[in-house]
Amino acid sequence: MNIDDAEFWELKARQIQLEDKNTRLEQEIRSINRRYQAAEASMARSMAYTVTREKILDFVGAEKSRQEKYFNLLLENTQEIMLLLDQDLRLLYCSQMLRTQAEIPDFSVINGVSFRELFSGHVEETMIDCIQNGLEQALTDRQTVVMGQIMDMGLKENYRYYNIYITPLLDKNDLEGVLIIFNDMTDELAAKERAEQANRAKSTFLARMSHEIRTPLNAIIGMSELASRDASSPPIYEYLSQIRAAGSNLLALINDILDISKIESGNLELVPVPYSFASLINNAIDVIRVRFTKKPILFLVFADAKLPNNLTGDEVRIRQILFNLLSNAVKYTHEGFIKFTITGMILDDNTLQLNFEISDSGYGIKEEDMENLFSDFVRLDLERNRDIEGTGLGLAITKHLCQEMGGDITVSSVYGKGSTFSAVIQQKYSGDDILAAVINPGLKSVLVYDERPLYADSISATLENLGVSVIRPAGAEAVFAELELGVPYAFISSDLIEEAAALVRRLKSRTKLVLLGELGEASSFEDIPVINMPVYAVPAANVLNDVSVQREFKGTAVRFIAPQARVLIVDDILTNLKVAQGLLQPYRMHVDICDDGADAVAMVKANKYDLVFMDHMMPGMDGIIATEKIRVWEKEQARKTQSSQKFGEGRENQETPSGIPIIALTANTIAGMKEMFLSKGFNDFLSKPIEIAKLNEIMENWIPQSKQQKEIVPERPAPIPALSRAPVLKLKRALEEEKADIIDLMLDDLLIMPFGEDQKKALSEIWDHVLALDYKKAAGLANTLLISEGR
Hints:
alpha/beta; 22 strands
């Protein structure tokens, strides 16, 4: 078929039109499809939302039901009284405990009632008003209010004690209601009261026992002190020293028990005073080294000579720390060594950290026992240590004291090989004085010879710390060779001292010999000083500076006499009066004694006393009442004369009651007693057993300085009169005649007399036979006692 050009192009145009139309239709179809798919997706989402919403509603309903369930369980089972009130203070919910306490059988009875209506009849109106005020405050301030109240919630016999917490309930900033919780504290407060009562009972018991035990201790320590002043031979003096030491040990045990009680009650206080560090170290070493004499132990001491000497702190408590640690080392070490090291470092301009380290070669401590080492009343390894005395309190007290002084205590130990205790404390210091120093140390080289290398090493370290060069010869021949060369100083042990002295005399050498003595050893050479073990910085520096190493015995030394002074001692126990009289003899004062408070008041009114020692606990009128009556009388006298009588002129810096200085003399050293005595009109406090150093301090502070004479002419104190044989004879006859009433009275009198140990033992045995009604044997022992006294 023939198609001309015009037809061809017409058909071509139509084809193009159809193709364009088809393209538009396809586009429209795609657009419709897209819209359909979007609509379909939207429909699916809508259906899914509906399903999800239904599920959410179901979940919320279940969760709400679960929460309501647990909320109701909480209200039913809590032991607290809980109330939920609306803004108008009407009840919405309450705990089962409220209904139980108020005897309300059903919640519907009280649902919606007002707070005041709810509590009316169960709680006093004044209490309701008080809680109402707390509710209004909580709603106004929109903050929790805490109240402590006593309420009677339906319990007709006993009040209950509650802490009340009132909390406003806020939804964002909108106030929806208020929650009240009554926390029952009755049982807790009752338990606290029982604990406080038990603690008060324990404190009372300790105070009483302290007094009861200290009273005979005062006689033991005091009488032994008096007797030692008049001891006629070294053995007698040694026996008396042992009695005094045993009494002091018992006193230390009592003090430990009292200290742990003070720690538990929070009443242990530190009393900082200025003191000499060198004196403290000397005292600690002097006290402890007498316990080494019967043991083959090397006692080594290293004290850094460059430490400050003028310190401020509780000197008594630091001495207690050192004594506890050193005593433990002595107790548990039977051979080998004990090393006491004292070092420190400056923390700032006036604070010093002191480090005390005590190492020993003793028993050591088991690893499993380490955690209980510092517990109260704990003694470790009892089977091995059964023969060692102690309370198990020393380390517990020591740790507390160290912590109170800004430090602590640690320990390392190998069982069977020894232990090392390290105590750290902080002290204040002042001035530039140091512990010890050698004048011109470069000119004072020292030869050191001791056959025990460990001891020689310790001495050498001490001398080098003092800046002195040390020569250590290997043996005796080397020692003599060095002496021939003319060494300035030679510290030599006793096995070579005689040969060395002979060699120095023969050579006419200028070498100064020093004997390295054992504990308690004396030199037979008048010109050779002795340094008894241990050699440490202070005595070594004294020898090198040509200062005498003999120290004043401070126990009985007095710094003045006062023949013109008059003192009154008041105590209801005859032995205590004798002890006090004897201790005051070195002052050469006129001393009056009295055993009753009322008589003491009369004597004060009749005589002019410079000082009164007043016992605390006496039958009839005790020391507090007697002191009160004396102070009242003084005020009456002052009003009559229109002027204040002044006593103790020259005494400085003493803020005390006016009138006669009265010193409380008591065995009760529980915390707070001193403050109590001062508040009752006493001027000072002296505990029993009487410590000589403290007594000396009291006398120096309170005897008028115008009556203190500093020049003391040595005078031997008068001996205590011998005990009469008459009481023993009377006892013997009563035993032979079996007169029980007289026997009891005589034994009571004799048991407080100042017998010797053998006589006291015989009296104790007599007492045992009397209790067994065996008067014949008791009479025989009384005859033995008479023979002993006749000697």
